[in-house]
Design brief:
Rossmann fold; four-stranded antiparallel beta sheet; two-component regulatory system; WH-like_DNA-bd_sf; DNA-binding
Length: 223
């Protein structure tokens, strides 16, 4: 799921937007101060930022400049009560990717967020700590570096990444990755999990990504 950082000091607006976006399938982090936003992006990153221009500790455009210094390609939508043309132009010239005035429609906000994610190529991407998985492009990156995975290893990772937290039995993984007509043993699943763990730098005794569930199968650990 795409990660939205919502920077909004109004508790009613913030709660409303957070709940709506979570119902639409986004992972939403909501902060009320500009400095919190900069710290979170610096430490954890984000896929898109919805930034209120009027914050109690920093002016929104100042926060925008800070975000740009942390990640020049991070999509940022300014959310503000200043809807006049001069303010919109100023925000866009300072580096905002889009501008939405208050009051606003939640459906329009959703459409604009999805458009920003499409333009940034981040739809269909999921991040698990240092691991990013591009579900549509069939690519994976660890600490920003591309992982060299075989087609079978990638298929296994994609199955895991689409359902973090779910326990898959070996039989389920065998059917999803190798297909229902595969005649080999379930031991092939264990062998490929070992290969995938090695490429992920994952320690079975203290897993970051793939956890063995004794007697059942494997679980992918999502943030």
């Amino acid at each position: 799921m795409a990660r939205v950082l919502l920077v909004e000091d109004d508790p009613q607006v913030g709660e409303l937007v957070r709940r709506f976006l979570e119902r639409e399938g986004f992972a939403v982090a909501w902060v009320r101060f500009g400095r919190e936003a900069l710290e979170r992006v610096g430490e954890e990153g984000a896929d898109v930022v919805v930034l209120d221009r009027g914050l109690p500790d920093m002016e929104g455009l100042e926060v925008l400049k800070g975000l740009r210094s942390l990640d020049p390609l991070l999509p940022v939508l300014l959310l503000t009560g200043r809807a006049d043309e001069e303010s919109r132009v100023e925000g866009l010239l300072e580096g905002a990717d889009d501008y939405l005035g208050k009051p606003f429609s939640l459906r329009e906000l959703l459409a604009r967020i999805k458009a920003l994610l499409r333009r940034a190529g981040k739809e269909g991407r999921r991040r698990f700590g240092p691991l990013e998985v591009d579900l549509e492009g069939r690519r994976a990156y660890l600490e920003g570096e591309p992982l060299r995975l075989s087609p079978t290893e990638m298929n296994l990772l994609l199955v895991f990444a689409q359902a973090p937290g779910r326990v898959f039995t070996r039989g389920e993984l065998l059917e999803r990755v190798w297909g229902p007509d595969f005649e080999g043993s379930e031991r092939v699943v264990d062998a490929y999990v070992r290969l995938l763990r090695k490429k992920l730098g994952d320690d079975p005794e203290a897993p970051r990504f793939i956890e063995t569930v004794v007697g059942l199968g494997y679980r992918f650990l999502g943030d």
